[in-house]
Amino acid sequence: MEPNSLPYLKQIDARAGFLCLFCWMSTVAAPAQSAPQVEPLRKMSDAQIIEDLGKNVDRLAAQDRFSGAVLVAKGNKILFQRAYGYADHAFNVLNKLDTKFNLGSMGKMFTGVAVLQLVQGGKLSLDDKLIKDLPDYTNKDIANQITIGQLLTHTSGLGDFFGPEFIGSSMAKFNTLESLLPLFVDKPLQFEPGSKWSYSNAGFIVLGLVIEHVSGETYYDYVRKHIFEPAGMTNTGNEPWDTDVPNRAAGYTMGDSPGAPRKSNIFVLQRGGSAGGGYSTVEDLLKFAEALQEGKLLNKTYTDMDMTGQVSTSRPGAKYGYGMEESFVNGVRIVGHGGGGPGINSNLDMYPGLGYTVAIMSNYDNGMPLVNQRLQMELTGQSLPKAVQLSAEVLKSFAGTYRPAAVEGLRVTPPALVITADDKGLWLQFMGPKRRFVPASPGTFFDPDLPRAHLNFAKDGEGQITDLTATGLGSPAPIKATKQP
């Protein structure tokens, strides 16, 4: 998962704390290779990785930076499972392994499987125009242009349903999939279908309506009967937030005020559905991963299809499939999906070649990457960066304000990156709270908590710092910035 995609997106728009409920959170935190490589030599044993994981999450929980549950399995053996923090701060209710956390966009995995089940059963085709499988769709022009496959792969040109009208409404208004249609159905396509990739929550709402029309069941009944029950997922569902669901955690968000007290997100959450937003547990996510890979939900042909990337995304090397993402990290294949929003930060990673399943669910903003990024590097055989010492005078030379250029894949130019220094390293102020960076070399710094985040500085012929290239800060491409006088 891009570790900082949520805070970055939040700051692009003042309303984005609401807008990111179903943000795409990719499963891989670094640029991925476009083709698999030979599996690398492992630097650590399973026992060493699990020991380090426990120490890392214990530290994060003690600092109140992670609240949720973590599960790591290899094959049918669970290597690590532990819960941290509070499901409800007001009543001092602790999180447990069976605590139900909001899925965010992870629900798109279930929608993808549901559509492929209907394709496998001969009830529709990925090449079908929308008009064939949803003849009552009111925008006939668009329905005659886009296909089911394009909706699944975010290449249809449909946009989103988040916006002023959504934000200004009571969430009780959006209790069905149909209730979201007026927010986007009459908007023009963003691009010619099939010509680009752009993450579309609206597209997955439409897919939910397709599932209902073709199957004759509500979306909620369909995924319960055909996915959750066959997989044994007894703690997964889509009940509205005003329904009393046992063991469901409240989400806690800092919103657009980093460092402020966390507040409950219950008032900004509509009912979960085909674009995401339901709830599950780490144990149920493991059951889903097992059922999918064991062929209990789809036959082998369609299982392979579901777990294979189809189109390139805004992040180099990553491919989005039919409700899943596939990437290769250091030669290791990882398949899954993430989800994030106010008080929501969860992810499922499946390592088909190595047999690992990693499920992390959090009811805090941005807690998951602090756990998953380090773990993912260790599971894929990468060495964590090590800090070196630089003098206070050298560190001070990096301080300043750096003005970014436009970034490919973003609609707006990022704000300035402000660097300050002390005798141990640098602090970065950018789209959220300050972050510590320590030197890995005389011109390269990394975030110890998110070790794939790097600052690389360039000098002119006189040895003066002139430019900065930042990676791992949440944008789809590196941020290149020039130091201001």
Molecular structure report:
The structure is a single chain. With 485 residues, the chain is α+β, with helices and mostly antiparallel strands. It folds into two domains: 5-379, DD-peptidase/beta-lactamase superfamily (Beta-lactamase), CATH 3.40.710; 392-483, Beta Barrel (Lipocalin), CATH 2.40.128. The chain is 25% helix and 22% strand. It has helices at residues 5-12, 16-19, 46-62, 108-120, 130-133, 140-143, 148-152, 164-167, 201-215, 219-231, 282-293, 300-306, 368-379, 392-396; strands spanning 23-25, 68-74, 77-84, 86-88, 93-94, 101-102, 252-253, 263-264, 279-280, 311-312, 319-320, 325-329, 332-341, 344-351, 356-362, 400-404, 417-421, 426-429, 435-441, 444-446, 454-459, 465-471, 479-483. The strands form five sheets. Strands 1, 2, 3, 10, 11, 12, 13, 14 and 15 form a nine-stranded antiparallel sheet that branches. Strands 16-17-18-19-20-21-22-23 form an eight-stranded antiparallel β-barrel. Strand 13 (332-341) and strand 14 (344-351) form a beta hairpin. Residues 1-22 and 24-38 have low confidence and may be disordered.
